[in-house]
Design a protein that fits this description.
The complex is a heterodimer of chains A (112) and B (116). Chain A has 112 residues and is mainly beta. Chain A contains no helices and 11 strands. Classes of the chains: A mainly beta (112), B mainly beta (116).
């Protein structure tokens, strides 16, 4: 039972354009969401997070949007840069839960 | 480098052998996690320690798997009688969150296991 789903295994965008990565979740107890980025041969690194009391969180070129009614979140990267090419994982947790549940990832390729 | 370190980075073993992975978390972090990642999938939770106490284990962690964190610092993950299905990347992460959630996890580079 996949509680966190990333239905797009890959995404290719032109440098300078917007990248939009999507994530859906099924567990209504989730109230904290994170995005991680992973380069080959490295561990995942934290990118940005959002609490369920918000619907948007912004950090530089990265913005995460949360739609609780649709159980959907998205990560916007604008403008996209070639160095953003990586696998992006969505993750979720619930209050008093110590573990993160990860999606299967989306591989982003930013073309120069 | 004061990040999470894992050793070895890559282990190749024959089916039936035992393997052990070590994780050194960020020194001030009291929470330590083990995850497993297979090709095309995201990290899957295996187990969690708060200091030296193992507070949660996933159903994925069969009896052949054991994890310890004896002094609340480094941790080991041992797999006995390895099977080909154990081939995966084993990721360790730590966090310092004091509240009732995990917060941001800091991952190591992982230990890749190949079982022949």
């Amino acid at each position: 039972d996949q509680q966190v789903k990333q239905n797009s295994p890959s995404l290719s965008v032109q440098e300078g354009r917007i990248s939009i990565l999507n994530c859906d979740y099924t567990n209504s107890m989730f109230d904290y969401f994170l995005w991680y980025k992973k380069y080959p041969a490295e561990g995942p690194t934290f990118l940005i997070s959002i609490s369920s009391i918000k619907d948007k969180n912004e950090d530089g070129r990265f913005t995460v949007f949360l739609n609780k009614s649709a159980k959907h979140l998205s990560l916007h990267i604008v403008p996209s840069q070639p160095g953003d090419s990586a696998v992006y994982f969505c993750a979720a947790s619930g209050y008093s839960s110590y573990k993160l549940i990860f999606g299967s990832g989306t591989r982003l390729l930013v073309r120069p | 480098d004061t990040g999470v370190s894992q050793d070895p980075r890559h282990k190749i073993t024959k089916r039936g052998q035992n393997v052990t992975f070590r994780c050194d978390p960020i020194s001030e972090h009291n929470r330590l996690y083990w995850y497993r990642q297979t090709l095309g999938q995201g990290p899957e939770f295996l187990t969690y320690f708060q200091n030296e106490a193992q507070l949660e284990k996933s159903r994925l962690l069969s009896d052949r798997f054991s994890a310890e964190r004896p002094k609340g610092s480094f941790s080991t993950l041992e797999i006995q009688r390895t099977e080909q299905g154990d081939s995966a990347m084993y990721l360790c992460a730590s966090s310092a969150q004091q509240g009732a959630r995990s917060g941001e996890l800091f991952f190591g580079e992982g230990s890749r296991l190949t079982v022949l």
